[in-house]
Amino acid sequence: MAKKESRRNDQEEQQRCAACRGEETFPYWCETCGRSVPEKRCPYCGLKAQKKKG
Ligand SMILES: [Zn+2]
What we know:
By secondary structure, the protein is of the alpha+beta class. The protein has a domain at 23-54. It contains one helix and three strands; from the N terminus they run H-E-E-E. The chain has a three-stranded antiparallel sheet, with no helix packed on it. The radius of gyration is 14 Å and the shape is elongated. 7% of the residues are buried. Bound molecules: zinc ion (ZN). Residues 30, 32-33, 42, 44-45, 47 line the site of zinc ion.
């Protein structure tokens, strides 16, 4: 997987640049909806969301 360590950041940005899509705004993540949410309980589906790492 880690063929080019120096390019690691580039790859991560290309694969999951959620910030570019405006989806990395909130501190929690709802796996059910597949999007970030502002609260620990997802306001979209009502299920529990996870706090993001980092
Ligand atoms: Zn949800």
